[in-house]
Recover the amino acids of this structure.
């Protein structure tokens, strides 16, 4: 993704498209990856969504669910003026555990992906207590 002038642009050459290409080369063209990621999203948004996580898992034909959160959760929690929805690492763990249990109840394999490394001002967000919850 590229951010410019207040806009986020998802390029065609990205991590998800490369993953789909590799999986299709190995397993065939029936492999499909859907990216439901959203810039700035927090883990709790999966629970607060207008369509419940339970319903999304029940209706999805996906076999594998990849969850990659922590950066925005840490960013919001570390802010001086925390907004509603800011989750501590412990709350993050409870939410993550609930999401995983629901996905598994619908026979999904869950993959937890650690967030990318941070540098510069983003380092102050202290993402590591959230990453630790992925273990």
């Amino acid at each position: 993704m590229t951010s410019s002038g207040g806009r986020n642009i998802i390029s065609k050459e990205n991590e998800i498209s490369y993953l789909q290409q590799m999986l299709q080369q190995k397993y065939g063209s029936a492999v499909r990856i859907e990216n439901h990621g959203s810039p700035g999203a927090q883990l709790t948004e999966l629970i607060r969504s207008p369509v419940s996580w339970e319903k999304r898992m029940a209706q999805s034909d996906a076999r594998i669910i990849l969850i990659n959160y922590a950066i925005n959760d840490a960013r919001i929690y570390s802010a001086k003026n925390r907004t509603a929805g800011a989750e501590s690492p412990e709350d993050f763990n409870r939410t993550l555990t609930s999401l995983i249990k629901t996905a598994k109840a619908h026979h999904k394999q869950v993959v937890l992906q650690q967030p990318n490394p941070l540098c510069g001002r983003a380092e102050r967000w202290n993402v590591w207590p959230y990453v630790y919850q992925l273990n």
Remarks:
- Residues 89-105 form the longest helix (17 residues).
- The chain has a mean pLDDT of 88.
- Residues 42 and 73 are 5 Å apart (CA to CA).
